[in-house]
Amino acid sequence: MSIRVLSPTAPTEHETAEMLETRLEFPDNRLLIDLFGEYNRNLAQVEQALGVQIMHQGNQLAVFGEADAIAKAAEVLQALYTRAEAGREITPGDIDAEIRMGGAETGGRPTDQMELFQGGRIDIKTRKKTVEPRTEAQKAYVRALFENELAFGIGPAGTGKTYLAVAVGVNMFIGGHVDKIILSRPAVEAGERLGFLPGDMKDKVDPYMQPLYDALNDFLPGKQLGKLMEEKRIEIAPLAFMRGRTLANAFVVLDEAQNATQMQMKMFLTRLGEGSRMVITGDRSQVDLPRGVTSGLRDAERLLKGVDSIAFNYFTSKDVVRHPLVAKIIEAYDADDPAK
Q1: What average pLDDT does this structure show over 99-103?
Q2: What are phi and psi of 201, to 5 degrees?
């Protein structure tokens, strides 16, 4: 069933040349409950983000605002309705994604490992959920993860670098393209010494690995995840534990790579084995290494930037998909950084 655009109309006596109206008519009233959201919160989110006013009557929506804003709002509302038609949930994050890049095409199917829905969306299927890139930078990053054996994701916190990498790893593991998933981080203290924490080495290290556990728990059922970790088909380990290994037929992620030294980074990169994929993620503004120690991430970026088959993907505060205040905090700190 198609959505009818009943206007744009010419300005009325209640409108100015800048304030126009477009009306949309949706064929299935039952789906409007999902489109509008509880207490019309979905419509309110679109209104606030795009600076428009939305009114509804029956199965019609009237969108008021400036020409560019109402065109964008109409595009977003139609995309969200199509999502509801497909039986898919509409969350605030989904609305944010449509507002950021609604209607953008992917330019083709990058690999048979990735599912594309109508409308050019890239979806990463895992056991528990389907993950969608929410910005153009995230979409390019996901494509790079599928297309390259070695990829870097560099940018501020909250831009989905690690989360998307783990999602792609789980997708490739489920699809049989790799035999195991290996997730690693440098166990670098940020104001608290490992030795002062209670417990054995695992107890001391696990808090540093917790974001990786959290991501995996989002994508795999608890019992299955526990069994896979017991069988060593999924491993989470500090970077130091990678020395001497050859990581073949594995999807390998190094998180917080800005805290790896030059020697650690070289050691890790040379672990890449036959049939493996490797992802390096990091934030150059959050280096916790001792003063005078060069970050291995910065060094690898300098040395490998021109090497074929290695992808570098960059994120900015505009790609932050956490609370909107996170992007503003990052921008404030960046503006105050004398090095920028």
Answers
A1: 67
A2: -60, -40
